[in-house]
Amino acid sequence: MIINEHIRSKDVLLIGNDGEKYGVKPTKEALGLAYDHGLDLVMVAPNAKPPVCKMMDYNKYRYEQQQKEKEAKKHQKTMELKEIRMSAVIEEHDFNTKLRNGRKFLDKGNKVKLSVRLPYRAKRSMAEQGKDVLRRFAEKCSDLGEIETKIHQDGRYINAVLAPKK
After folding, report:
1. Which CATH number fits domain 2-72: 1.10.238.10, 3.30.230.10, 3.30.390.10, 3.10.20.80?
2. 86-102, pLDDT tens digit by residue?
3. What is the side-by-side strand order in the sheet with 40-45?
4. How confident is the model at residue 17 (pLDDT cuts 50, 70, 90)?
5. Contact of 8 with 39, CB cutoff 8 Å
């Protein structure tokens, strides 16, 4: 925002701190009026003809804006992407442990990236087995989340992303 002496326009439409319209005034006169009231002259609409300026306490205005931004940031919900890695041949106990962690992440509102790493010379049957592991995981978490990206193979990894239900 352009304030006080940085305003380069010849004439401005002046508005008081309480919303009172002073009309079109030369910039120097508007600046003098603002200083007489102990306020700053702030250009609020630079593209208007003539530009619109308002008398206000600029430091107080900036402080209030910062407080509003902080408050808005507090109420924002951040979503993290948590990753769970498994293998195509996973024991039942290990699967249940990973499942418990995945459900906990979904319950907290985080997305979960599931990845199954295949051995170097994996056969097609091993890839199918890895996809089955991901499908079973997604099925057991269906009450908390749904598959956001389909199960796909990317090199040695088979991936899927689960997003929490709204």
Report:
1. 3.10.20.80
2. 998 999 999 999 999 99
3. 2-3, 40-45, 52-56, 11-15, 21-26
4. confident
5. no
The DSSP symbol for 49 reads: S
- In the CATH hierarchy, which fold is given to the domain comprising 81-164? Translation Initiation Factor IF3 (3.30.110)
**C-alpha distance from residue 29 to each of 9, 17, 23, 154 (Å):** 12, 16, 12, 69
Query: What is the predicted pLDDT for the residue at 63?
Result: 94
Q: Are 117 and 83 in contact (CB under 8 A)?
A: no
Residue 124: its pLDDT value, please? 79
